[in-house]
Predict the structure.
Amino acid sequence: MSTSLQASESAPVDAWSAPGSGLLGIAGVVALGVVLSWLSGRFPTEMPAWAPYDFSWVSFLGIALPTVWYARGLYISSAPQRPNLFRTIAFAIGMALIYTTLLSRFVYFSQHMFFLNRLQHLGMHHLGPFLLALAWPGATIRRGMPDWAARRLQARWLHRLLRITQQPVVAGAVFAGLVALWLQPTVHFHAMLSPWLYDLMNWSMVIDGLLFWFLILDPRPPAEAGCSYPARLAVVLLVEFPQILIGSHLTFTNTVLYSYYDLCGRLFPSISAILDQHIGGVVVWIPQGMMGAIAFLLIMNNIRKQEDRAGGPGRNDIKVGGTRVSSASWTGR
């Protein structure tokens, strides 16, 4: 992930692309955070649903700063550097999902229904990071960052840590293991009651989701990415089985496993504890499994594109009346 961050080419200087604008963006984010922190503490019930429900500086800065840097990087990028519209939209939706699951009033809802808690983790561990990996925003964020912040990303300890955590076996074990850990009934009960453990649970899911999906969906050739396509395909398949087992168990068991939601009060009293658990099991089982299938297809598509590149220009070209025509124009290749 960090190896994709590259320096930008020179761009015309204006108020948004001037060297000091990166620091100005940080100041603006901090100022906005101060206002939102004060408002959420002073008028919690009057805040709109999209506003921070329980303000956290770690969550706010972790979302706002990359978003501002991406927007600035997008603005100062030259045409060849600029990501396409699909990648830009994927980044926006991915960040919006992580914001919603970490800071908005949906956090309150997810603390009062088990199936909403599973939707929260689906957004922060699967769908949000998945979309961010599809966006592959590293180079664009790097262009928008102040130089001193970008240099911090080149620290040797960070590169060593990434090399360890993005080994296929380690990444797959942690990805499936965290889902199982936080769904263990006793651990889940204490995590939902303890503020610091609750934050640890949520941020571990976000960070792990980013590390995993950036490894799996890396669009670079295997030699540059440091992970072969067969290894990625194997990891995607293997992490599916624990999730299917956990999801099916939650869906079909008739024993209530998560008493916390009875203790705190359910948001929808008409949904019984066992039905709530069954719906949550379906969320763990089906949507997450479907994302694995989509990832598998995307890896296969990357293999196809890599084979086309390896074949060299003109491999799929044909001659029509003395004119060379690329088959890519009508086959998608």
In short: The longest strand covers residues 317-320. Residues 112 and 267 are 5 Å apart (CA to CA). Residues 1-13, 314-321, 323-333 have pLDDT under 50 and may be disordered.
